[in-house]
């Protein structure tokens, strides 16, 4: 949003930055004078995670606002020990939250909270203290049940009406703030900024990558021309395993998009709360549209279950890995795979088996996955290790956990947050950190970009190399020699 100028001039921005304990940078997400003075537009501008500043610009030239470490995109009441409200006049001052239980709230017409339309705090309305019955919420939000106000305790409350933003101010013990009462003052502007903690970036990246188009071209060429050391095995079958919403199917689309140099839209991606994929589906990754298959085939299956979703069973997973399950088999939670199903392979060959396991985990959820999912992942890791099959972890949505990475994917290996998420993913499965590969899937983009492609291409090359290393150990007398391609010298170095 660099083309939209913030109402925070250089001096006010410096004063606001000085209120934080370490260096920060602000990224403008919403500006009422540009995006529309509606509360629904403000709330929809929040990222799914991160830290945010809400700044209210008053006719006097003063600025009032609040900081929260919680996204207000979903939910009503937010416990936030980091929250504070602030004022910027000739100087800036912050008032940290003293009672964090309801530090920040999003108010709805059915919440039993005062909507404050036409009345101030503590003012007696026509229908009772602080409450209004006959309110046209269509003027306040996109639907009758939409949000009507955002508040930081009682001291700062923002609402909208007829394309105008209003702010109400008053003293509040929850924030130790002694602001004089002001009822629904008309705002000159209201802005939402994402707060980037500059301390989140390491002085130097902990994995070295050459982020150039030359690297992308080398990685792509190496992948499409890769020949496995075992000539009798035409291609690697890599199985994608992960919970609902981890991005398994989107990863398949993203790899094809990277190879084809354009965004690919396949009918295998959804946003359902349960697993979108119901069948065993193998996707050959071709060197070009309509071209010959590469050395990699990605196999997508039903999501792994957790406490809220039954998902793919452990026994069915093992049957897939061992090659017993036919292509297109539709999984049924209450009907486990057995040798009576149509197409069951009683004696699968090496070509039918799975040669690499890819655990796909969501970086935004990796710290909140259920204990049952952790148990399932650990059990699978142990069993697959006993089978001698290489494993990797794909950590998706890394751009959604760090502002710096969202702004520039080149920061992915300089981000402390991403590093911590990768470490958590490694612990969750039981693999070393070097086995975790961060990726960003193509979800909303309309064209591919160099840095996202480099991460994705690094993954597929790592898969082929991991399988080759295993084949060389498992078939020492059969392999024909080293594969004909070598990794590009300026690609990912772990």
General description of the model:
This protein is an alpha+beta fold. Helices cover 23% and strands 21% of the residues. It contains 10 helices and 20 strands. The strands form 4 sheets. It has a 6-stranded antiparallel beta sheet with strand order 1-14-2-3-5-6. Strand 2 (52-57) and strand 3 form a beta hairpin. Helix 4 (213-224) packs parallel to helix 10 and helix 5 crosses helix 10. The longest helix is centred in the last third of the chain and has 25 residues, at 450-474.
Sheet with the most strands, sense and barrel status? 6 strands, antiparallel
Number of helices: 10
Q: What helical percentage do the residues reach?
A: 10-25%
Amino-to-carboxy terminus distance: 34 Å
The proportion of strand residues reads 15-25%
SS class: alpha+beta
> Taking strands numbered 1, 2, ... along the chain, how are they ordered across the largest sheet?
1-14-2-3-5-6
Runs with pLDDT <50, length 5+? Answer: 112-143, 484-494
Strands, count = 20
* Overall form: elongated
Mean pLDDT value: 86
SSE run: HEHHEEEEEEEEEEEEEHEHEEHEHEHHEH
> Using only CA atoms, what is the Rg?
27 Å
Notable characteristics:
494 residues, alpha+beta, six-stranded antiparallel β-sheet, 10 helices, 20 strands, 23% helix, elongated, disordered C terminus
């Amino acid at each position: 949003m660099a083309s939209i100028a913030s109402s925070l001039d250089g001096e006010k921005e410096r004063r606001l930055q000085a209120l934080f304990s370490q260096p920060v940078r602000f990224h403008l997400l919403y500006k009422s004078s540009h995006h529309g003075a509606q509360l629904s537009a403000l709330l929809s501008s929040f990222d799914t995670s991160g830290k945010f500043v809400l700044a209210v610009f008053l006719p006097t030239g003063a600025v009032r606002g609040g900081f929260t470490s919680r996204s207000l995109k979903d939910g009503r009441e937010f416990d936030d020990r980091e929250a504070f409200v602030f004022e910027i006049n000739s100087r800036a001052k912050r008032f940290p939250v003293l009672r964090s239980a309801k530090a920040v709230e999003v108010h709805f017409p059915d919440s039993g909270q005062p909507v404050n339309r036409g009345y101030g705090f503590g003012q007696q309305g026509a229908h009772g203290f602080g409450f209004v019955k006959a309110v046209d919420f269509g003027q306040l939000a996109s639907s009758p049940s939409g949000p009507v106000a955002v508040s930081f305790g009682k001291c700062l409350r923002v609402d909208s009406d007829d394309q105008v933003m209003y702010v109400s101010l008053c003293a509040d013990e929850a924030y130790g703030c002694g602001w004089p009462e002001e009822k629904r003052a008309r705002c000159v502007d209201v802005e939402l900024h994402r707060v980037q903690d500059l301390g989140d970036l390491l002085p130097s990246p902990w994995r070295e990558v050459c982020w150039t188009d030359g690297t992308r071209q080398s990685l792509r060429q190496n992948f499409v021309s890769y020949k496995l050391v075992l000539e009798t095995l035409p291609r690697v079958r890599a199985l994608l395993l992960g919970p609902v919403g981890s991005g398994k199917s989107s990863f398949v689309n993203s790899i094809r998009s990277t190879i084809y140099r354009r965004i690919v839209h396949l009918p295998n991606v959804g946003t359902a709360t349960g697993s979108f994929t119901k069948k065993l589906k193998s996707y050959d990754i071709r060197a070009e549209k309509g071209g010959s298959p590469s050395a990699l085939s990605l196999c997508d299956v039903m999501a792994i279950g957790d406490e809220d979703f039954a998902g793919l069973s452990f026994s069915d997973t093992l049957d897939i890995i061992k090659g017993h399950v036919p292509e297109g088999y539709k999984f049924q939670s209450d009907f486990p795979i057995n040798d009576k199903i149509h197409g069951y392979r009683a004696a699968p060959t090496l070509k039918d088996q799975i040669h690499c396991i890819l655990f796909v985990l969501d970086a935004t959820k990796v710290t909140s996955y259920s204990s049952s999912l952790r148990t399932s992942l650990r059990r699978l890791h142990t069993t697959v290790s006993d089978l001698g099959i290489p494993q990797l972890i794909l950590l998706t949505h890394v751009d959604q956990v760090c502002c710096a990475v969202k702004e520039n994917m080149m920061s992915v290996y300089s981000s402390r947050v991403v590093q911590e998420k990768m470490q958590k993913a490694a612990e969750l499965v039981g693999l070393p950190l070097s086995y975790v590969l961060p990726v960003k899937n193509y979800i909303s983009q309309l064209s591919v970009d160099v840095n996202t492609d480099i991460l994705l291409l690094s993954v597929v090359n790592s898969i082929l190399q991991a399988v080759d290393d295993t084949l060389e150990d498992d078939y020492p007398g059969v392999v024909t020699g080293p594969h004909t391609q070598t990794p590009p010298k300026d690609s990912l170095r772990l």
